[in-house]
Amino acid sequence: MRGARPLLPRWRAPRWAELVAGWALLLAAAAAIGFIVVYVYGADTQWLGLSLGLAFAFLAAASIVGAKKLVPQERKEEEREPLDHEKDDLDIAVYFQEAGQGITRTKLLKRAGGVAGLAFVGAIVAPLASCGAFLDVEELRAMVWRRGVRLVDDVGRPLTAADIAIGSMTPAFAEGSDREKLDSSLIVVRLKPADLRLPGKRSGWAPDGILAFSKICTHAGCAVSMFRYPLYPPRVPGPALVCPCHYSTFDPASGGTVLFGPAGRPLPQLPLAVDDEGRLRAAGPMSGPIGPSWWGVQEG
Amino acid sequence: MIYRLVRYLDSRTGRTPVVKKLLRYIFPDHWSFLLGEVALYCFVVLVWTGIYLTFFFDPSIHSTIYHGEYGPLRGQEMSQAYRSMLDLSFRYKAGLLMRQTHHWAADVFLVAITLHLVRVFFTGAFRKPRDLTYYVGILMLALAMFEGFAGYSLGDDLLSGMGLVIAYSVVLSIPFVGGNLALLIWHGPFPGTSEFISRLYIAHVLLVPVAIGVLLTIHLVTIVFTHHSQFPGKRERESNVVGTPAWPGYAFRTIGLALSVTAVLFLLGGLVQINPVWEWGPYHTYQSTNGAQPDWYLGWLIGALRLMPGWEPHIGHYTLIPNAFWGGVLFPLIVFGFLFAWPSIERRITRDYEFHHLLNRPRDVPWRTAVGVGFFTWVGMIFFAGSSDRVFVQMHISYTSQIHVYQALVFVLPFVAAWVAKRVCEELLRAEAHPLRGPGGGRVRRLPGGGFERVSRP
Question: What is the pTM of this model?
Fold first, then answer.
């Protein structure tokens, strides 16, 4: 190259480093080819990962040896350029100021500009309202349970009182409903009638000691899928429904009140009745709104 | 050949002086400066493996019956999204490798960002003129967490569904507008409609990655503009920058680091199982499992949700603050608020508005280190509380007792840790000892009176 002058410090790479880098490159190539071979024959995930990982590792080794031994080593020092340019900063401000020097009705234009800006932001954002019927919060209060709705199991078979053994836990759904909807799913348990401590208003909600609660935790919406029922002494602490997400713990005997954990309100209870055929039916709506709490959830 | 290429490009763009300057851009050397680079290379691996995954993933909640390779789930009803996750894992060659590498890369990405943040905090690298870079970094941390959550929520397996319903509850818990907001995002009450997964998908594969990419560019460009900071040394002063030039020394080093990170991620992806979605099964709103854990970087949020007692203040009959708000909204707002506010808080306390290109060692500013240690201990305790269900399941330590202990510790331990940190800093500052290597010795002289006097420091 004409006119070239040396710019980097003189450097002689050690022979071993050249050999190491060369071998590392060859091994990287071998591992990469190995990856392709593994991919074609069988493609076992472990071998794929091992071969591709090693290919990158050898390439990395070559690069690091190259950085530390093959290219000239330098430690350079440089003065920092100042970061503030006071005169230029001032000039920019002046450009903006003087651009408006011919305007007298500044206030009017600023206000009109502000209004236009806001209106346009509104126009750009407005179509986002199509994302969901967000004004209709009644959807969040959907309640499929009414007096007479039958409880069915996970394959749609109506549940009978005889299906529910003492100390057992049975998932149930509203007959004919979409089971994925939060208001459909129930957890049905049976306690000894003598152990019940339901409030007076709920007497008769638990025929033969069978209790039904919303399966959706009032804290963060997970399925309450754990049931504690001590079978032999010590029987304290007593029966409890537990959500596995944050361990909100509800007391079925007293109507789903919170025993422990972050839930702020009881698990809603469904009043039950047993019909002439022995099948479980809802005797009315749930004791309160189902699902995680929100602004529209009312106390009482 | 290089010369001819450069001549060709220069005569068409005239940018050679800039390129020449960039080639000789100086990188100060310290191992801790590599943490940010590790995060950068994780992001690159995430983008490449992620693009591969999109070739196979079907973001749809339409129901289907599984007839694939994995026997135990055959005949089960599941969403197309979950079905395509299973196919990625069992049907397509290298699919599982890419999926697991992608997942590992996300976890390592957030480890690297977090450690990078800790390094920047304790060395005072966030001070003027790098506060702008710092703010952008914090924003990226938040986005990266959201991005990771969106990623593992897409699969519609049992764990992702449980995560989503918690996210739904957290949105729902925002006072006054939570219900409306949740309906807007999910297109109806949980579990939402097919529109929701379309939104989650485009957020995960386009909106958030592009946002991170833009912020990353700003992050890097502002660093180049201000130059790297450096620790004080024999040659290092406020007014200069000392280190290895980009070309040739640093380029090969950083390529070596990029390749090493990629190597580790593929080795992890191939050899260490992560998120075996086929074991969780498809999600249904009425199912859940004990001992479910999110990816590690959301542990602090699940911890906060777990630790909060069941408070739900009311206005009249209405729920003013649903419980999930405390741990799911307020807590992260406080944490990120602190991180965002810290540079200006420190400026206000120290009344130091000067430029700082030399870094502090953590001991150099004991009170800042104490505040930082206290803060990170606080978040760390809540993070550990997030794992109390696993501790309960595997070590049989009562869950309720653990929670009560943590509830006390989160108020006590940060102050203890801060006090200890301050004392250690002051002691180290006095003795000028290396925290790990201990005192290095020095010369003493005996005085005529029989006492000793130190002549030189180690």
Answer: 0.94
* Nearest chain A CA: its distance from B364 CA (Å): 24
Cβ contact (<8 Å) for B260 and A64? yes
Chain segment B304-331, per-residue pLDDT in tens: 999 999 999 998 889 999 999 999 999 9
Domains, chain B, ranges and CATH? 2-62+75-295 (1.20.810.10)
Q: How far is residue A250's CA from residue A259's CA, in Å, rounded to a whole number?
A: 5
Q: Is B420 exposed, middle or buried (0-12, 13-18, 19+ CB in 10 A)?
A: middle
Contact A292 B169 (CB under 8 A): yes
Per-residue confidence (pLDDT) for residue B141, from 0 to 100 = 98
CB-CB: which of A184, A225, A263 is closest to B288?
A225
Q: Report pLDDT digits (tens) over A162-174.
A: 999 999 999 999 9
> Is some CB atom of chain A closer than 8 A to the CB atom of B175?
yes
State whether the Cα torsion B268-B270-B271-B273 is positive or negative: positive
DSSP state of A23: H
Q: Which residues, in sequence order, are CB contacts of A93 under 8 Å at separation 6+? A: none
Contact between chains at A83 and B239 (C-beta distance less than 8 A): no
**Residue B191: which of A142, A180, A264 has the nearest Cβ?**
A180
Kindly report, residue by residue over B109-131, the tens digit of the pLDDT. Answer: 999 999 999 999 999 999 999 99
CATH 1.20.1250.20 for domain A142-282:
no
**pLDDT, tens digit (0-9, with 9 covering 90-100), for A89-129:** 999 999 999 998 999 999 999 999 999 999 999 999 999 99
Residue B260: how many CA atoms within 13 Å on its side-chain side? 16
Q: Which of A63, A179, A298 sits opposite B317 (nearest CB)?
A: A298
Whether the ipTM is more than 0.90: the answer is yes
